[in-house]
Automatic annotation (TrEMBL):
Ranges where the ABC transmembrane type-1 domain occurs: 56-271
Listed Pfam families: BPD_transp_1
Protein name per the record: ABC transporter permease
Cell compartment(s), UniProt: Cell membrane
Organism, as annotated: Cohnella soli
Membrane topology field: Multi-pass membrane protein
Protein family (similarity comment): Belongs to the binding-protein-dependent transport system permease family.
Amino acid sequence: MLPACIVLVLFSYVPMFGIIMAFQDFIPTDGIFGSSFVGFDNFVHLFTLDNIQQVMYNTLYISIMKIILGLAVPIVFALLLNEVRSRLFVRSVQTIVYLPYFLSWVILAGVFIEILSPSSGAVNHVLKLFGIDSIFFLGDKEWFPNVMILTDTWKSFGFGTIVYLAALTGIDPSLYEAAKVDGASYFRQMFHITLPGITPIVVLMTVLSIGGILDAGFDQIYNLYNPIVYETGDILDTFVYRVGIKDMMFSLSTAVSLIKSIVSFVLIVISYRLAYRLTEYKIF
């Protein structure tokens, strides 16, 4: 484990020293030791920005909706796939829906830009066949956050499907046989055997996702958004990137990242305790 521990220390713990910039008026030429301390001025300035509340709302809305759909869609798909008797078909579908999970958003962004194009995109061509005007999905502030939620769900639900299918295989088949003998319909079997059987893993996946509620998907949104949709598409991570890298306001961006890290840490601790109480899941 030594090599992994060394990498962890070098790239995860040593950079934590840079947190001090959140309390400085950091100037790159002066460095961390030469820049003056300003206390909590950066945090005060952060909460006086006009758009910070909208950025927080965008982050929470996109993230929470991704969590909800990221749980619901794989569960429904796994239940449907579990009823298919052809193992070859099931394995083929599993592979197909799992493949997007391994693709980078850099690649998928180019694909979705083409598919959702208002002039030449396949989606708008279909809409025109039904007499619906073209929609600028990636340039309309009303559509943009919902497109981010749906495309992320499409990309990642294959992974969740495999998790829930594995949970379904752990249910004792004799329970279904006994239910059939008692005359239970398919839906009664689903509500009284299947869903209770996978409830622990559903609860576990839910509470563990709470810790990442402020991670709305930087790589996805950064590759798909533009200034037109900043109002509804700008999240904390993209805000930090623009403020810190483009505007070179290093201290302010570090303050934002520090707040996000503290909140995420608290949520992770809470979700871990919930996972232990509800499903007796623990790492240590």
